[in-house]
Amino acid sequence: MAVKVELANDEDYLPILCCVFDAYGGKHEYINSLFPRNMTEEGRKVAEQRCLYLSQVSPNVKWYKATDTSTGKIVGGTMWNIYTDKKPTATPLDGPPGTWETPFDKGYAQALYEASRLLERSFFDTHDLPLAALSVMAVAPNYQYRGAGTALMNEGMKAVDALGAGCVILATDAGRWLYEKSGFRVRRHVTLELPEEYADRPKSRVFLMERERRT
Ligand SMILES: CC(C)(COP(=O)(O)OP(=O)(O)OC[C@H]1O[C@@H](n2cnc3c(N)ncnc32)[C@H](O)[C@@H]1OP(=O)(O)O)[C@@H](O)C(=O)NCCC(=O)NCCS
Fold first, then answer.
1. Residue 136 belongs to what H/E stretch?
2. How far is the CA of 149 from the centre of ligand 1 (A)?
3. Which of 31, 94, 109, 191 lies in the 20 to 30 Å Cα band around 44?
């Protein structure tokens, strides 16, 4: 498959998010908690609104889309956070009213999000600016194993290396291989630590992967 990777526009968020949610197939605890009802049209629209808002208020966010050049269809995407002037500060996860069905669900999503950000901060605290974190990487199931993930990664790494940024990723099993090819190394295999009230929820495990800056 011939793939083109370029920066995404506002109208690309929904098709990219559809690729992301289809890639996880409604089976990923972290994605399901942060983006409730993500296998429904309504849940995807809410997610799109949140991503649009985030990209408007945060200059650090950069989305890329991967397009199948023979059809023009978006088959995957990535979201990077890139910090050049200032390290990120702790900002709680939020969404418009109705995003989460109960305060408990929202609290759980916020706890998962905060546990992830804490891991990223373990890298940011020990490294100088510029810094980068890959937050989203997905290719729609019908297009996987055909090079789109590698193409997305290569484009992101070009931007990261042009800046000379140190980089961190919280990776899934599927993503780990891709990131190792780009020079990331697993530092720790971590179970996200959550408050006691969420003890009966499934454990979320990630590879904390890092890549030192290349100047
Ligand atoms: C991870 C993901 C983006 C890879 O996309 P892709 O388009 O299939 O990637 P590529 O075709 O470029 O393959 C990249 C390499 O990873 C390997 N690979 C891809 N998926 C793999 C998997 N599930 N398990 C093991 N290896 C895998 C490929 O064999 C290839 O290696 P090679 O170049 O040495 O042959 C895709 O599997 C996906 O969306 N997964 C679900 C979401 C997810 O887990 N994202 C990562 C979040 S951290």
1. strand 131-139
2. 6
3. 191
pLDDT in tens, 149-199: 999 999 999 999 999 999 999 999 999 999 999 999 999 999 999 999 999
**Parallel/antiparallel/unpaired status of strands 166-171 and 73-83:** unpaired
Q: Does ligand 1 come within 6 angstroms of the Cβ of 138?
A: yes
Query: In Å, how far are 93, 124, 152, 158 from 5, measured between CA atoms?
Result: 28, 27, 6, 12
Indicate the pLDDT class of residue 215, thresholds 50, 70 and 90: confident
CB 194 within 8 A of CB 146: no
Cβ contacts of 86 within 8 Å, gap of 6 or more: 129
Domains of the chain, earliest start first: 3-211 (3.40.630.30)
Residue 200, C-beta contacts closer than 8 angstroms, at least 6 positions apart: none
For residue 177 and ligand 1, the question of a CB distance below 6 A is answered with: yes
Question: Is residue 19 within 8 Å of 140, Cβ to Cβ?
Answer: yes
- Report pTM: 0.95
